[in-house]
């Protein structure tokens, strides 16, 4: 896997600096890492070795960012992707319902925090769209696992970017 580009590092540093103010909310959204596709009937597969490596790389990518909360759907592949991030920050992985994204309770719980959300090829862009209030992002291709959605909210201003990290 290639290392992060300078732009990625710069943007993450800006987000981290903004969080020192504790007046903004930042969301990092990723799709779960590579899953085991050997059994097409298994609706809840675990990560492959490559997926485990990617999950640990997500933790390395975010290691210099103070994360307050880590969320995952209740599937092996998402929880296994979220766990190294949470462990690196001494946090527990909290579960969220992908059928009820960015509801009022979630907004209140995460306000002023830096949050990582691990989801799926369809729920991750949908979650990002709910946060920004716009249908900007389409589902992620099933072969792509390296997209990092970053959304920052300060007052009523929302900034968003998607980085490809492979």
TrEMBL record:
Residues annotated as signal peptide: 1-18
Membrane spanning residue stretches: none
Domain of life: Bacteria
Keywords: Signal
Pfam families: His_Phos_1 (PF00300)
Protein name as catalogued: Phosphoglycerate mutase
Native source organism of the sequence: Aquimarina aggregata
């Amino acid at each position: 896997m290639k290392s992060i580009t300078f732009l990625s590092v710069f943007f993450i540093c800006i987000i981290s600096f903004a969080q020192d103010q504790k007046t903004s909310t930042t969301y990092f959204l990723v799709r779960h890492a590579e899953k085991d596709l050997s059994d097409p009937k298994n609706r809840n597969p675990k990560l492959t070795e490559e997926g485990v490596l990617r999950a640990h790389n997500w933790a390395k990518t975010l290691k210099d960012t103070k994360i307050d909360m880590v969320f995952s759907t209740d599937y092996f592949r998402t929880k296994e992707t979220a766990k190294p991030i949470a462990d690196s920050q001494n946090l527990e992985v909290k579960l969220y319902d992908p059928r009820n994204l960015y509801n009022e309770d979630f907004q209140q719980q995460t306000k002023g925090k830096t949050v990582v959300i691990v989801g799926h090829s369809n729920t991750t862009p949908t979650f990002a769209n709910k946060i920004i209030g716009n249908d900007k992002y389409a589902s992620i291709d099933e072969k792509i696992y390296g997209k990092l959605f970053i959304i920052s909210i300060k007052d009523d201003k929302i900034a968003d970017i998607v980085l490809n990290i492979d």
